[in-house]
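Task: sequence design from structure.
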């Protein structure tokens, strides 16, 4: 198991470097990422390279047996470059050139930037590409984190070329963007621009393509550096991702990345931090269809960039690290090794804090190094799961570019449904339109706004072979090109679901209490759609959904939606499990089910609350065999099987008693004979008999 962090020795004098090595050995650090922001040191003037200082650092690390993740240093171009070539600086949608003095100050499309960045990557690869201690290449850093879109002339030129390659002729673009609306028609690609600031709403097709283009441009930057590296080095290559980050289609990037790696900073102030850790771990593991990933950045305690920077509670640093290992991580690394004393990240926690050795952070860092050193037999193993969640970056871009029909809550829906599986004890594989869906028993499709016929056919096929598919609104409102579905939304799924969406009828969100019936006689006599802030559901007592809700709690939980409701047209063979209650929605179908081959399709015409989601998952569980592989765990405990081990992760504030488990706990190196107490915010990793 790899353990370490970003190492920025250029911020420190030599005596500290010696202390660094001593402390790294003490903490069992075996991988550090170096040079991520070192361009100005590596190439202090155009074409003048300075590698002596890096040679020394690498030699010291190598002598101490600490592996190297060598960055190309290109995430922050030096001042000489932006002065010689101000055209590489990114431009905002209002035409403002951004300046030097922060980071990621480069245009995604600039051929000049790519030339200089690739030259540096190539020089580094020439010098260190075959170094025996080089474990990994780290290209750039968090692509798109700050500058995911550039509106400069270079970007506009590249966008036109990209569009011409995509559409071939301008009429195809006119059709795809619906340019007859508002007289936006083009007669040549030369007339097309990036979607810079406009008087009012932008063309959704243009915005969607610009997002796709920008993701491709970031990938092209990465590939240019990778090609320069490959001329001299065969070492594996990565770039650090950022979870569900909307601008970058990580699934499309994944084939070009040798080891998926991620940076992840759940807010310790949220009780959903554990859910988020589970979600991003499942996502990263899924990008290459189950291949383990590296966590390249997390914090030991607190970040500095939130309004309130809560630190992790005692035990949480190790617990969340093991949570990632449980779900497929083979490396646990932090930002950063030694806390900076100057600069924008001075107050971001690190492995060596300002206070030094005499601190909880340092004790935690040494403790985790010890724990991870016992995880050797976990490395490289897989996480079995039968539950999948379908997501698609392209659909999300269509959703984000669409004007209406309601709030865009796609990421919330993904998190909510993943959270439902998490709370029930199921790890989840993320799947994508190009994924193989066979082998999954339950497939959840939360708000896939734009869906192709191919994706719909795959879901149908999966259901016919026995999978339970849960589709939630709004899904398949557009086709994959962004064209609104006619003849009923979600019609592309009608063979699976037996429903078509006739209309969206969104509940209000806020109750209007400004009307005074004593004086506002006309308005007070009316009822507006916004007179309800949640839409309640009435569950049919003859359905399994009703019985499951009954079993969850007494009294039976009421279920509802908040932001979304629809009017459905339903085929005769569809069961209505629940209807909406109140106002114009009263009596309309809210949740439907249709048997389909060996499986079935559930449609949820609202953004269902927690109890409703949990109940539907349990209904699906009863119809499939997934429950057989679920590990029963007490409240607060997440139980995940990876390879030979069961990870028991107690997120709760109270000690948890786990019964019925036998084997050897890797953390305590002791035998487990059927009964185990896991203290609050701690874990056991039991290699089962
Ligand atoms: Zn640009």
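Answer:
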């Amino acid at each position: 198991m790899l353990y370490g962090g970003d190492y920025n020795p250029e911020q420190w004098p030599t005596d500290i470097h010696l202390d660094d090595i001593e402390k790294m050995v003490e903490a069992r650090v075996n991988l550090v990422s170096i040079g991520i922001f070192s361009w100005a040191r590596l190439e202090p003037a155009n074409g003048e390279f300075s590698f002596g200082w890096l040679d020394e650092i690498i030699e010291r690390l190598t002598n101490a047996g600490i592996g190297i993740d060598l960055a190309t240093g290109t995430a922050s171009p030096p001042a000489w470059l932006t002065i010689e070539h101000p055209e590489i600086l990114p431009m905002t949608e209002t035409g403002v050139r951004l300046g030097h003095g922060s980071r990621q100050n480069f245009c995604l499309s600039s051929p000049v930037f790519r030339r200089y960045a690739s030259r540096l990557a190539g020089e580094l690869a020439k010098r260190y590409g075959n170094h025996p201690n080089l474990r990994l290449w780290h290209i750039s850093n968090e692509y798109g984190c700050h500058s995911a879109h550039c509106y400069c002339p270079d970007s506009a030129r590249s966008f036109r070329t990209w569009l011409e390659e995509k559409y071939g002729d301008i009429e195809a673009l006119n059709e795809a963007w619906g340019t007859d609306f508002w007289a936006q028609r083009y007669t040549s690609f030369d007339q097309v621009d990036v979607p810079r600031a406009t008087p009012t709403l932008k063309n959704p097709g243009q915005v969607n393509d610009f997002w796709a283009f920008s993701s491709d441009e970031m990938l092209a930057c990465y590939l240019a550096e990778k090609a320069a590296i490959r001329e001299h080095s065969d070492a594996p290559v990565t770039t650090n991702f950022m979870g569900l980050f909307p601008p970058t289609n990580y699934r499309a990037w994944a084939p070009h990345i040798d080891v998926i790696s991620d940076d992840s900073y759940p807010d310790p102030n949220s009780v959903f931090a554990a859910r988020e850790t589970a979600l991003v771990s499942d996502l990263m593991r899924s990008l290459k269809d189950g291949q383990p990933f590296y966590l390249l950045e997390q914090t030991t305690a607190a970040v500095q960039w939130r309004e309130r920077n809560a630190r992790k509670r005692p035990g949480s640093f190790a617990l969340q690290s093991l949570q990632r290992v449980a779900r497929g991580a083979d490396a646990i690394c932090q930002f950063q090794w030694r806390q900076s004393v100057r600069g924008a990240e001075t107050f971001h926690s690190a492995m060596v804090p300002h206070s030094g050795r005499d601190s909880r952070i340092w004790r935690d860092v040494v403790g985790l190094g010890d724990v991870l050193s016992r995880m050797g037999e976990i490395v490289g193993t897989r996480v079995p799961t039968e539950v999948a969640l379908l997501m698609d970056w392209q659909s999300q871009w269509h959703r984000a570019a669409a004007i209406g029909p309601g709030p865009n809550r796609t990421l919330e829906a993904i998190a909510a449904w993943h959270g439902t599986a998490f709370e029930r004890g199921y790890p989840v594989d993320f799947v994508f339109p190009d994924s193989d869906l066979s082998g999954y028993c339950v497939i959840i499709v939360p708000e896939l706004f734009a869906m192709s016929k191919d994706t719909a056919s795959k879901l149908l096929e999966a259901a016919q072979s026995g999978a339970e598919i849960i589709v939630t609104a709004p899904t398949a409102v557009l086709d994959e090109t962004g064209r609104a579905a006619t003849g009923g939304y979600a019609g592309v799924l009608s063979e699976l679901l037996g429903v078509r969406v006739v209309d969206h009828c969104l509940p209000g969100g806020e109750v209007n209490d400004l009307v005074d019936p004593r004086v506002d006689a006309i308005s007070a006599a009316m009822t507006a759609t916004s007179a309800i802030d949640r839409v309640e559901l009435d569950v049919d007592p003859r359905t399994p959904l009703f019985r499951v809700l009954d079993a969850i709690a007494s009294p039976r939980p009421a279920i509802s939606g908040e932001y979304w409701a629809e009017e459905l047209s339903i085929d005769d063979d569809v069961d209505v499990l629940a209807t909406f209650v109140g106002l114009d929605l009263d009596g309309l179908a809210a949740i439907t089910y249709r048997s389909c081959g060996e499986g079935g399709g559930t449609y949820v015409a609202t953004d269902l609350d927690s109890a409703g989601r949990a109940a539907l998952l349990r209904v699906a569980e009863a119809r499939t065999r997934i429950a057989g592989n679920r590990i029963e765990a007490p409240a607060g405990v997440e139980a995940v099987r990876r390879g030979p081990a069961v990870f028991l992760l107690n997120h709760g504030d109270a000690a948890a008693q786990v019964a019925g488990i036998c084997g050897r706990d890797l953390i305590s190196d002791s035998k487990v004979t059927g009964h185990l107490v896991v203290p609050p915010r701690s874990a056991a990793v039991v290699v089962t008999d």
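Residues 91 and 543 are 57 Å apart (CA to CA).
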